[in-house]
Fold these 2 entries.
Entry 1:
Amino acid sequence: MTLKLLYFAHLREALGTGGEDLAVPAHVTDVRTLRAHLAARGGTWKILEESQNLRTAVNQQMAGQDSLIAAGDEVAFFPPVTGG
C-alpha cells in the first residue's frame, strides 16, 4: 500500500524532506509499525521510533501508536507544539 507521509518542524530539518509518497509492506498496518519501518532506514530516521514526544496525525486526526493506517492515508509526524 502507498501512504503520503509528512514531516514537520525539526523532523523536516533532520530528515531533509518535508514529505514523501511511500509504498510500505503489508505488515505495516498501524502507526507503531510504520514508525519502526521508517526507523529501519537507519541514521537520522531512527528519531521516528526513538522520540517519546513525537505526535502523529492520520488524515489530519490525532492518532495514537495503535491507530490503524490504510492505503492512501496521509500520515503526519510532528513534535509537540506550544503556543503563546
Entry 2:
Amino acid sequence: MMKPVMASLKARYGEQITWHYHEFNQPDAAKVNAIFEIKAHPEIFILDRDGRMVRKFIGVTSMYELETTLRPLLR
C-alpha cells in the first residue's frame, strides 16, 4: 500500500535522500527492529543528516505528511 507513495517520493527526491528498505519480518532484522522499536508494518522513519530520528510514521501515511517532514530537511 505504501509502495506507490515511496516510489513517487524516490522519483521526486532521488539522490537528495538516502533510502533504506527494511523487511521487519526477516530473521536477520531483529537488531534493527530492536533499535527502532519496530512493531508494525509499515513504519517509516525520517532521519536527519546526522542520523537522528526526526519523525516516525506508523501505518499508512499520506504523501503530504511525508513531504511536509522531508522538505525542511533538504534545505
